[in-house]
Specification:
Elements lengths: L1 H25 L4 H22 L3 H10 L1 H22 L5 H8 L2 H7 L5 E6 L2 E6 L4 H22 L4 H29 L5 H27 L4 H28 L4 H9 L4 H12 L7 H34 L1
Helix pairs in contact: 1-5, 1-10, 1-11, 1-12, 2-4, 2-9, 2-10, 4-8, 4-9, 5-12, 6-8, 6-11, 7-13, 9-10, 11-13
Protein name: Multidrug resistance efflux transporter family protein
Keywords: Membrane, Transmembrane, Transmembrane helix
Pfam families: EmrE
Length: about 325
């Protein structure tokens, strides 16, 4: 239950991403600066934290072992995740993007067969390729049903072009984030804590953000003071606090893909926090009755997903003890 609670806390801070990105977009800011500035601000914050904990040298040593893998999967996990999220903010409200983002619950489950896990058998621990957790996936469908109910009225008011440009980038991001995260977990092998891993992936993804920033300077000029300040807030809340909490939660269940999927499912709460944030900052109206039903389904689906995953883990341990 502890990893799930930590996952919900990370969802609260992640929600600032969708709200502030939409606010910056409505204020005339470029999505290019919204994406790149966040990671530029994250570097000094994380360096201070990791150096204060005395773990900077260890991180540099481990990154030198597989530099190409760090570059590749960091750009996938951070670059192909956050760039599309910021791009989508130009076409859809933040809460709607947060809702679409919950497809990552299914995306993460569908990625399970591409990874291996350790299971207890009569012959001891064996490494096998993961299987799609269909029971947990069915609970995820309840979450998605709730999200659809929340969005159904607003989605009808958007043009097809806005829907396409708002949804497709988020769908791509929903696969990139868990893929990059899990690949880096394999490479690190439990040797790095959450702060180190986030800093390492941020540093390794910097070439992409520098290229994007150079293009942004040429295409749109320098960012405004307001966008710079808001990007710094996103870097602190979503980039540092939320990401570290989420990575810490995934580290707690590393090696168990069912529990990992349950932690990733907690991110469904982002849509609730994002809706509340936009009502506060952007003066959006109160949700309709249909939206409240959707919120209830999201929470119920999240709890059922966690329960099914824990029950399966308990059952596996019982079988192992009997063997």
């Amino acid at each position: 239950m502890r990893p799930v609670i930590i996952g919900v806390c990370s969802a609260f801070f992640f929600a600032f991403t969708f709200v502030l990105n939409r606010l910056m977009e409505l204020s005339g800011g470029s999505w290019i600066w919204s994406a790149s500035l966040r990671y530029f601000f994250m570097v000094p914050l994380l360096v201070l934290i990791v150096a204060w904990r005395g773990n900077l040298t260890q991180l540099m040593h481990i990154m030198k072992e597989h530099p190409k893998s760090w570059l590749l999967w960091s750009m996938v996990g951070f670059g192909l995740f956050y760039g599309p999220i910021c791009f989508a903010a130009a076409y859809e409200p933040g809460w709607l993007i947060a809702g679409t983002w919950q497809i990552t619950i299914i995306s993460g489950s569908l990625l399970v067969p591409f990874f291996k896990e350790q299971v207890q058998t009569s012959n001891g621990l064996q490494t096998v390729r993961g299987k799609i957790p269909f029971k947990g996936l069915s609970m995820s469908l309840i979450i998605l049903l709730g999200i659809v109910l929340m969005q159904i009225e607003q989605a009808r008011t958007l043009s097809f072009n806005d829907v396409l440009l708002g949804v497709l980038p988020v769908l791509a991001a929903s696969f990139a984030y868990p893929l990059g995260n899990r690949k880096m977990m394999e490479i690190c092998g439990g040797r790095l804590d959450a702060y180190q891993r986030v800093l390492g992936m941020t540093l390794a993804s910097l070439p992409l953000w520098i290229i994007l920033a150079v293009y942004g300077l040429w295409a749109d000029g320098l960012p405004t003071r307001a966008q710079t300040f808001q990007s710094a807030l996103v870097a602190l809340s979503s980039g540092v606090i939320a990401t570290v909490l989420f990575f810490y939660a995934t580290d707690l269940v590393r090696g168990n893909v069912q529990q990992l999927a349950a932690v990733e499912a907690t991110q469904s709460v982002e849509v609730l926090f994002a809706a509340i944030g936009e009502m506060w900052l952007l003066s959006l109206p109160l949700p309709s009755a249909l939206s409240w039903i959707g919120m209830a389904l999201i929470m119920m689906g999240m709890m059922l997903h966690s329960y099914v995953s824990k029950a399966k883990k308990h059952s596996s341990l019982q079988k192992a003890n009997v063997s």
